[in-house]
Amino acid sequence: MAQQSPSASPTGAPRGRERDVYDGRSAWATSGTMFAGVLLLIEGVLGVIKGISGIARDDVYSQVGDYTFKFDVTAWGWIHLVLGLVLGVVGAGLLKGALWARAVGVVLAAISIVLNFMWLPYTPIWAVISIAIGCFIIWALCNDGGRSRASAA
Protein backbone atom coordinates (compact mmCIF):
# COMPACT_ATOMS: atom_id res chain seq x y z
CA MET A 1 0.00 0.00 0.00
CA ALA A 2 1.40 3.35 -1.00
CA GLN A 3 2.05 5.78 1.78
CA GLN A 4 0.80 9.33 1.32
CA SER A 5 3.20 12.14 1.78
CA PRO A 6 2.51 14.43 4.75
CA SER A 7 1.86 17.29 2.35
CA ALA A 8 -1.06 15.52 0.64
CA SER A 9 -4.63 15.33 1.85
CA PRO A 10 -6.77 12.15 1.76
CA THR A 11 -8.23 13.37 -1.56
CA GLY A 12 -4.77 13.52 -3.07
CA ALA A 13 -4.76 17.30 -3.29
CA PRO A 14 -1.93 19.19 -1.61
CA ARG A 15 -2.77 20.25 1.96
CA GLY A 16 -4.52 23.58 2.17
CA ARG A 17 -6.04 23.09 -1.27
CA GLU A 18 -8.92 20.77 -0.31
CA ARG A 19 -11.38 23.57 -1.02
CA ASP A 20 -10.25 23.70 -4.64
CA VAL A 21 -11.62 20.21 -5.31
CA TYR A 22 -14.83 20.52 -7.33
CA ASP A 23 -17.97 19.98 -5.32
CA GLY A 24 -21.26 20.33 -7.16
CA ARG A 25 -23.09 21.37 -4.00
CA SER A 26 -20.66 24.20 -3.27
CA ALA A 27 -20.89 25.37 -6.88
CA TRP A 28 -24.68 25.63 -6.51
CA ALA A 29 -24.37 27.44 -3.20
CA THR A 30 -21.74 29.88 -4.43
CA SER A 31 -23.78 30.58 -7.56
CA GLY A 32 -26.84 30.99 -5.35
CA THR A 33 -24.99 33.52 -3.21
CA MET A 34 -24.05 35.52 -6.30
CA PHE A 35 -27.64 35.32 -7.55
CA ALA A 36 -28.90 36.35 -4.10
CA GLY A 37 -26.71 39.46 -4.34
CA VAL A 38 -28.19 40.30 -7.72
CA LEU A 39 -31.71 39.70 -6.40
CA LEU A 40 -31.05 41.92 -3.38
CA LEU A 41 -29.85 44.66 -5.71
CA ILE A 42 -32.93 44.31 -7.93
CA GLU A 43 -35.27 44.09 -4.95
CA GLY A 44 -33.63 47.24 -3.58
CA VAL A 45 -34.08 49.18 -6.83
CA LEU A 46 -37.69 48.06 -7.14
CA GLY A 47 -38.29 48.97 -3.48
CA VAL A 48 -36.97 52.47 -4.16
CA ILE A 49 -39.30 52.78 -7.16
CA LYS A 50 -42.23 51.45 -5.10
CA GLY A 51 -41.38 53.89 -2.34
CA ILE A 52 -41.07 56.91 -4.61
CA SER A 53 -44.38 56.14 -6.30
CA GLY A 54 -46.10 55.73 -2.92
CA ILE A 55 -44.63 59.00 -1.60
CA ALA A 56 -45.26 61.05 -4.75
CA ARG A 57 -48.88 60.10 -5.30
CA ASP A 58 -51.17 58.76 -2.65
CA ASP A 59 -53.54 57.26 -5.24
CA VAL A 60 -51.03 55.00 -7.03
CA TYR A 61 -51.98 52.04 -4.86
CA SER A 62 -55.58 51.18 -4.11
CA GLN A 63 -56.79 51.89 -0.61
CA VAL A 64 -57.48 48.87 1.53
CA GLY A 65 -60.75 48.56 3.39
CA ASP A 66 -60.59 47.25 6.96
CA TYR A 67 -57.12 45.71 7.24
CA THR A 68 -55.14 45.13 10.41
CA PHE A 69 -51.87 46.57 9.07
CA LYS A 70 -53.44 49.60 7.42
CA PHE A 71 -50.96 52.46 7.04
CA ASP A 72 -51.13 55.55 4.94
CA VAL A 73 -49.74 54.83 1.46
CA THR A 74 -47.19 57.60 1.98
CA ALA A 75 -45.94 55.83 5.11
CA TRP A 76 -45.63 52.60 3.13
CA GLY A 77 -43.75 54.56 0.48
CA TRP A 78 -41.17 55.71 3.02
CA ILE A 79 -40.85 52.18 4.42
CA HIS A 80 -40.21 50.74 0.94
CA LEU A 81 -37.84 53.56 0.02
CA VAL A 82 -35.62 53.12 3.08
CA LEU A 83 -35.69 49.32 2.90
CA GLY A 84 -34.94 49.46 -0.83
CA LEU A 85 -31.90 51.65 -0.30
CA VAL A 86 -30.53 49.36 2.41
CA LEU A 87 -31.24 46.21 0.34
CA GLY A 88 -29.38 47.73 -2.60
CA VAL A 89 -26.33 48.50 -0.47
CA VAL A 90 -26.29 44.98 0.99
CA GLY A 91 -26.73 43.45 -2.48
CA ALA A 92 -23.74 45.43 -3.73
CA GLY A 93 -21.79 44.26 -0.67
CA LEU A 94 -22.62 40.64 -1.46
CA LEU A 95 -21.45 41.04 -5.03
CA LYS A 96 -18.17 42.50 -3.77
CA GLY A 97 -17.73 39.53 -1.41
CA ALA A 98 -18.12 41.44 1.88
CA LEU A 99 -18.51 39.04 4.82
CA TRP A 100 -20.86 41.37 6.73
CA ALA A 101 -23.31 41.36 3.80
CA ARG A 102 -24.24 37.70 4.26
CA ALA A 103 -25.62 38.05 7.80
CA VAL A 104 -27.16 41.46 7.12
CA GLY A 105 -28.68 40.05 3.92
CA VAL A 106 -30.41 37.23 5.80
CA VAL A 107 -31.83 39.64 8.40
CA LEU A 108 -33.00 42.17 5.80
CA ALA A 109 -34.53 39.47 3.61
CA ALA A 110 -36.52 38.25 6.65
CA ILE A 111 -37.67 41.82 7.38
CA SER A 112 -38.59 42.24 3.73
CA ILE A 113 -40.68 39.06 3.82
CA VAL A 114 -42.62 40.29 6.86
CA LEU A 115 -43.16 43.75 5.35
CA ASN A 116 -44.28 42.28 2.04
CA PHE A 117 -46.74 40.09 3.92
CA MET A 118 -48.13 43.22 5.54
CA TRP A 119 -48.15 44.93 2.09
CA LEU A 120 -50.06 42.01 0.48
CA PRO A 121 -53.50 43.70 0.15
CA TYR A 122 -52.04 46.65 -1.77
CA THR A 123 -50.24 44.64 -4.49
CA PRO A 124 -50.92 40.93 -3.91
CA ILE A 125 -49.08 39.43 -6.89
CA TRP A 126 -45.93 41.49 -6.49
CA ALA A 127 -45.92 40.96 -2.72
CA VAL A 128 -46.04 37.17 -3.18
CA ILE A 129 -43.21 37.36 -5.73
CA SER A 130 -41.14 39.47 -3.30
CA ILE A 131 -41.81 36.97 -0.51
CA ALA A 132 -40.59 34.11 -2.73
CA ILE A 133 -37.47 36.10 -3.69
CA GLY A 134 -36.79 36.77 0.01
CA CYS A 135 -37.09 33.06 0.83
CA PHE A 136 -34.61 32.17 -1.92
CA ILE A 137 -32.19 34.85 -0.70
CA ILE A 138 -32.29 33.44 2.84
CA TRP A 139 -31.77 29.89 1.55
CA ALA A 140 -28.85 30.88 -0.67
CA LEU A 141 -27.07 32.91 1.99
CA CYS A 142 -27.52 30.26 4.69
CA ASN A 143 -26.63 27.31 2.45
CA ASP A 144 -23.25 28.57 1.24
CA GLY A 145 -21.47 27.09 4.27
CA GLY A 146 -18.65 29.59 4.21
CA ARG A 147 -17.23 28.45 0.88
CA SER A 148 -17.42 31.95 -0.60
CA ARG A 149 -15.39 33.23 2.38
CA ALA A 150 -12.66 30.72 1.63
CA SER A 151 -12.50 31.76 -2.01
CA ALA A 152 -12.46 35.45 -1.07
CA ALA A 153 -9.42 34.97 1.19
Describe the structure.
The protein has one domain. Residues 148-153 have low confidence and may be disordered. The chain is elongated. Helices cover 68% and strands 0% of the residues. It has 153 residues and is mainly α. Helix 1 (24-56) runs antiparallel to helix 4 and helix 2 packs antiparallel against helix 3 (99-119). The protein has five helices and no strands.
Low-confidence stretches: 148-153
Overall number of structural domains? 1
Instruction: Give the termini separation.
Output: 36 Å
Number of helices: 5
Helix content: 55-70%
Our estimate of the beta-strand percent is: under 5%
Mean pLDDT: 77
User: What sequence of helices (H) and strands (E) makes up the elements?
Assistant: HHHHH
Computed over alpha carbons, the radius of gyration is: 21 Å
Structural class: mainly alpha
Q: Report on the biggest sheet.
A: none
- Taken from the alpha-carbon principal axes, the silhouette is elongated
